[in-house]
Amino acid sequence: MNYWLLFALVVASYLLGNISFGRIVSATRNVDITKQGSGNPGMTNVMRTHGAKLGILVLVLDALKGAIPALVGVFAFGGYVQSDYPLYLTGTAESYTALFACGFASMLGHIFPVFWKFKGGKGVATFVGIFFVAQPIWSLIIFALAIISLLLFKLMSLTSIGLLIALVVIQCIYVPQGNNLAIWIILALMVILIIYAHRSNISRLIKGTENVTDLQEAIKKDKLRVKQEIKDKKIEIKNEYKQNKQEYKEDNITKEDLKQNKLEYKHKIEEIKQERKTQLNEIKHDKKEQMKELKKSNAKNKLEETTETTNDEDNN
């Protein structure tokens, strides 16, 4: 077994597990999920806070954090082998060791993320993603039963622990032959890690004070959120229309105003034309008067000249 390759894949899987999809999805709603509900950034708290739709989205994304490293691990070390058992998928001891090692590292990254000061989720969705790679058919069956259990009892922690135990038991029955001690150890560590992450839930279950997770209530919350979003959108459109209407009144004119302005414009043009005409007429009149005065002056001058000439001739 190439332990250096396995080590590199384990480190990469842990870093992938650090991605907090609960925080990312909640941030799209401008909400810090660590300050809502239980404060846990996992799927359950997202579902209680935002509804079923976003809760399921986080479930799928967190499950992929377990499934992708597990797939890479199993195919990097030999892949699957043909099984003699129904509803069962298996591989070599090496490939399944790598599968669970990479998956477990991703779980560690999810529960104890170094980038989030080691405060993460509880790892159930990531755990489910790992087992969908290890035992897809059994995982699908048990996951469906877990959904029924959640609908009946409305206790996510109880459902999660039951899901964990069932999947581990199935895998323990069909552990690949060969040097499989590492697989047993990793499976045991997975169980310990999930139980440790749910220690407060187990305490509340014993006391009977555990928080319920009502899927129907989460779905109802989704519907209410959609209705509210539509209502907000309508209000936004209505306000935008009012604003546009106000701006139209302030910055533009109505048809009646436009007609009135046109009449005023024509009237002003006529006034300007009339004023120009009057000015031109005054100028013409002044010119005529000047011409008359000039003619009179010329005639007077000629008369005076004629008189002077006549007097001169008489004197001679």
Description:
The protein is elongated. The chain contains twelve helices and two strands, in the order H-H-H-H-E-E-H-H-H-H-H-H-H-H. The mean pLDDT is 81. The termini are far apart. The protein is 78% helix and 1% strand. Helix 4 (52-76) packs across helix 6, helix 6 (124-134) packs antiparallel against helix 7 (136-153) and helix 7 packs antiparallel against helix 8 (156-173). It is mainly α. A two-stranded antiparallel ribbon has the order 1-2. It folds into three domains: 3-213, no CATH class; 217-252; 259-316.
Strand content: under 5%
Judging from the principal axes of the Cα atoms, what is the shape? elongated
Give the oligomeric state of the chains in this entry, treating copies of one chain as homo and distinct chains as hetero.
Answer: single chain
Helix content: over 70%
Order of adjacent strands in the largest pleated sheet? 1-2
Number of helices: 12
Order of helices and strands: HHHHEEHHHHHHHH
* Average predicted confidence as pLDDT: 81
Find the count of extended strands (DSSP E, 2+ residues): 2
Question: Could you write a compact summary of the structure shown?
Answer:
By secondary structure, the protein is mostly helical.
Write the layout of secondary structure elements.
Elements lengths: L2 H15 L3 H7 L15 H8 L1 H25 L3 E2 L8 E2 L1 H19 L12 H11 L1 H18 L2 H18 L7 H17 L1 H9 L7 H37 L3 H61 L1
Antiparallel strand pairs: 1-2
List its salient traits.
316 residues; two-stranded antiparallel ribbon
